[in-house]
């Protein structure tokens, strides 16, 4: 009789521990997601130098890698409906703008970008969101000072 009681108690405690661990991980993921969203929202309509944009690009790649976002054959991240983040940069080219994905910038060499655009000014002109309210896409546009 006592053995059955202890076995049931142990099983019950294990179930509670596993449930508590799952709730903790879920809440931690939500808080992390909110922090990421808030940091990206803070860039909207803010003017920054190319050096800061490089940091944002690198951070976004790290987040996508951490979230195990798949890439296509061109090396571009494949958008999912949950936590992928894409960044596009619109460069002033003659009388118009040319928009390039962050992966292409990073693949062509961050040092090249740093040499040419480190002192250039950029502004986040667009933010899009997934249906779950996570940041989906940002567009930074080169501006004239």
Question: Would you kindly provide a brief summary of this structure?
Answer:
With 145 residues, the protein is an alpha+beta fold. The protein has helices spanning 2-41, 50-66, 102-107, 110-117; strands at residues 47-49, 86-93, 96-101, 121-129, 135-143. Strands 1-4-5-2-3 form a five-stranded mixed sheet.
Largest sheet: spatial strand order: 1-4-5-2-3
Low-confidence stretches: none
| SSE run | HEHEEHHEE
The dominant shape is: elongated
Percent helix, as a range, is 40-55%
Largest sheet: 5 strands, mixed
Q: Secondary structure elements and their pairing?
A:
Layout: H1 2-41, E1 47-49, H2 50-66, E2 86-93, E3 96-101, H3 102-107, H4 110-117, E4 121-129, E5 135-143
Parallel strand pairs: 2-5
Antiparallel strand pairs: 1-4, 2-3, 4-5
Summarize the structure in words.
The longest helix has about 40 residues. With about 140 residues, the protein is α+β, with helices and mostly antiparallel strands. The protein is elongated. A five-stranded mixed beta sheet has the order 1-4-5-2-3. About 50% of the residues lie in helices and about 25% in strands. The model has no long low-confidence stretch (mean pLDDT about 90).
């Amino acid at each position: 009789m006592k053995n059955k009681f202890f076995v049931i108690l142990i099983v019950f405690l294990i179930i509670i521990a596993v449930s508590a661990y799952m709730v903790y991980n879920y809440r931690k993921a939500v808080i992390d997601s909110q922090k990421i969203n808030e940091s990206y929202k803070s860039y909207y309509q803010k003017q920054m130098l190319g050096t800061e944009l490089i940091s944002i690009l690198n951070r976004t790649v790290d987040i996508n890698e951490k979230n195990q976002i798949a890439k296509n054959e061109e090396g571009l991240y494949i958008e999912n409906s949950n936590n992928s983040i894409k960044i596009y940069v619109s460069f002033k080219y003659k009388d118009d703008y040319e928009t390039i994905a962050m992966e292409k910038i990073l693949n062509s060499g961050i040092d090249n970008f740093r040499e040419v655009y480190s002192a250039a000014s950029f502004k986040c002109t667009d933010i899009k969101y997934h249906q779950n309210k996570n940041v989906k896409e940002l567009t930074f546009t080169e501006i004239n000072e």
